[in-house]
Amino acid sequence: MIESRSRREFEEIMAERDVVKGLNELDQLVKEAKLRMQSGEDAPLAQGLHELPPEQLFLAHLAPVMKEAESKLEADISHMEAENMQLLHSMRQSEDEVDKMALELATVIKDLEAASDVMGHALDGVNMKAEIRTVDEGIDAKDTGRASRL
């Protein structure tokens, strides 16, 4: 009776703590360690924190902060690159518009030069200054007449 009760409790404890699985994992670790020893591979040495140099401790504490800063900077760079691409595209469109306007302006200038040449040939021998003064005096006279009526 005591023996059967002890066996039952032992089996319950074995099942609760999953002892068989733990032992299997331990066996696997021992096999891997033996293979490493046979192959001459060094196992990493466990070292206490008090044995680490200050620089290594400092860097260990900074690593998460630096990783976060690096991620933020990479995101900022990616955002800036996208923004730069948009600005470059906009700048190229503006350059194209300026080139188009320059061509249109060159066409207008050629047209004005042609019109000037035509007008120059049509007005050969005409004293433009005298004509302009006459037209200007006529306009002034009309304006003076209107002003006196008001």
From TrEMBL:
GO process terms (BP): cell division; chromosome segregation
Protein name stated in the entry: Uncharacterized protein
Pfam families documented for this protein: Nnf1
InterPro entries membership: PMF1/Nnf1
Compartment list: Chromosome, Centromere, Kinetochore; Nucleus
Organism superkingdom: Eukaryota
PANTHER family per the UniProt record, alphabetical: POLYAMINE-MODULATED FACTOR 1
One term under GO cellular component: MIS12/MIND type complex
Keywords for the protein's UniProt record, in alphabetical order: Cell cycle, Cell division, Centromere, Chromosome, Kinetochore, Mitosis, Nucleus
